[in-house]
Amino acid sequence: MTLPQIAVLSLGGTISSTRSGSGSGVTPTLTGEALVESVPEIAEAAEVSAEAFRQLPSPEITVDDLVELAAEISRRVEGGAAGVVVTQGTDTIEESSFVLDLLLDVDAPVVMTGAMRNPTLPGADGPANLLASVRVAASEAARGLGVLVVFDDEIHAARYARKTHTQSTATFKSPPVGPLGWVSEGTPRVALRPVGRHHVRVPTGSEDRPVALLAGALGDDGRLFSAVGELGYAGLVVEATGGGHMPSSTVEPLADLAARMPVVLASRTGSGEVLRRTYDFPGSEMDLISCGLIPAGPLDGRKARLLLSLLLRSGASGDEISGAFDRWLR
């Protein structure tokens, strides 16, 4: 039987690490070849080629890195890879996977994974996550699902996946839908399939369009919002309280900013969608939307920021940006 060809690309992370000395922290030392050799069962699931695409701590990964990675993934798929696994540190996987999901237009499974426990600790989870990810990437059942996040034998859609705990190996959750499936006895099971796909075409050589992310809070007076326009940002996402509500003192600076750049209204709650026509007091969602803010729908602030940044890179107009956020509700 011919095994499927799977490409494993590393952005960094702690699936393979060393400790530099007594009492010192852990430093990622992952190479693609060592990663695969550390889990011999992979050879029974797929024919794997592995490469260190980047070696970065996850907070150092940029959208530019991900644009280049998306191009490399597309080349691998066009070259015959049945699927791709990307490893990186867990801190920003929910963001990296979402960007790749927006950039890629391939049916082949693209799976992101990593490790919560580095190899110097008992019960390191990296090898099991890697093996499960290769199996998912090689599975016909995972085709057409977009980018996936596989941890703790659960299969999550990038559009929903969130890191919810600083240390737990079960850190990745997908509110409100839950995982799409799981891996049982080495076999991927897909129980749910998301409706539709969302893509943003970013022209080659496009420049970064930085978007600020600020959260609303009790007693916020809005002074930070006024500063955003002077700091070179191309857009703003505000994580409002509840269903999309802010103190009345912030309405004027947000309205002024929305007249100059796209301002997206998300919720800091982490689940549900921004309301549109329920409350109508000063600072309510109806008030803010009437001032020009764009509701983020079900996207949290982190994902809304990345979608807005990619849309700005693509040259989208204000109406096209609003339409792109509207489509998340369909």
TrEMBL record:
InterPro entries per record: AsnASE_II, Asp/glu_Ase-like_sf, Asparaginase/glutaminase-like, Asparaginase_C, L-asparaginase_C, L-asparaginase_N, L-asparaginase_N_sf
One Pfam family this sequence matches: Asparaginase
CDD domains: L-asparaginase_II
Gene Ontology BP, a term: asparagine metabolic process
Binding site for substrate: S58, T90, D91
SMART domains: Asparaginase
Limits of the Asparaginase/glutaminase C-terminal domain: 211-325
Record-level Gene Ontology MF annotations: asparaginase activity
Keywords assigned: Hydrolase
Domain L-asparaginase N-terminal, residue spans: 6-191
Active-site residue list: T14
PANTHER family the UniProt entry points to: 60 KDA LYSOPHOSPHOLIPASE, L-ASPARAGINASE
Family note: Belongs to the asparaginase 1 family.
Protein name per its UniProtKB record: Asparaginase
Record organism: Rubrobacter marinus
